[in-house]
Design a protein that fits this description.
By secondary structure, this protein is mostly beta strands. Helices cover about 0% and strands about 30% of the residues. The chain starts with about 40 loop residues before the first strand and ends with a strand.
Length: about 80
């Protein structure tokens, strides 16, 4: 059976989710040391040709961040692997 979206009685109910960015699950804790969109210095390089800095994209765990490293790509970094 096909759905005919051209029919006048065809209704599509859109659901909209409002993310409350102030809720605990989305808000960054004030004591957090690192922040997204911050360049950090890598303490160990993922490969000999990669840059020595990485751009933090988002936090994936308490001590892990998804980061973009020029000439390497995305990587999950532990907070022990970089500094300001």
């Amino acid at each position: 059976m096909k759905l005919d979206s051209e029919r006048p009685d065809f209704a599509v109910q859109l659901r909209r989710r409002n993310l409350d960015i102030t809720s605990k699950s989305y808000a960054q804790e004030p004591s957090q040391k690192f922040a997204a969109s911050t360049w950090v210095k890598l303490l160990q390089l993922p490969n000999p040709f990669s840059f020595e800095e990485a751009l933090l994209l988002c936090q994936v765990a308490e001590d892990e961040w998804l980061a973009w490293i020029p000439d390497h790509g995305e990587a999950v970094l532990h907070t022990r692997q970089f500094s300001y």
